[in-house]
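Quick illustration, no need to memorize.
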Amino acid sequence: MLALRPCHCMLRRPLVLSGRGSAASACWITRFTRRWEAGTLARGELAAYAEQYRHIEAALPEVLSRVASNLPDGPARAAVNANMSDELGRPAPHLELFDTFAAATGARCGAPPAPATRSLAALQLSSAASDPVRGLGVLAAYETQAAAVAATKAAGLRRHYGIDGPGVAFWDVHADLEADHADWTASALAATAASPAQVTSAAADGARAWWQFLDERQTAA
């Protein structure tokens, strides 16, 4: 059993996940991530990553919309809508920022999703539609780690791949905003009075799906 460091999730309790890749996945410590930071990914690997990640980024507004629509008017829905407002336009639509990054890597437009990409997107969408607590818990597995990871990715792109300016803006923006998004997700969960067990179960599923997504990118190298 591995314990994560405390995160921004429900009641600020640490998530405790079990099994291969669970705690490590929620911290996004994978070989692929380390190679990005060290500059040992081939340019084609960055492009393939961007092709797959775009499917997740493109689905995020719908994920947030589904969560919000299943919440009553009040602080929880307001927190999710604030997150969605950022996604759609602060400082620009995040999918547009991501597409600029993808173009800088040489990613193809319209690449089909790989199996782990499909599974991750499907988990986020189905969880958001079925139960707002589960949808928020799955998102928490990403958002509680995303700011730090985005900062290291931006640094790696600048240092090792010569990508800067608009090409790295997506990661710079997320390094700045994701701490707020994690806090908003925590606030939304607190407003629902969800149990820590519910949140931990959903976050564990989200963490495993992210691990499989990143592991698939490493395996495809």
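DSSP finds nine helices and two strands in the chain.
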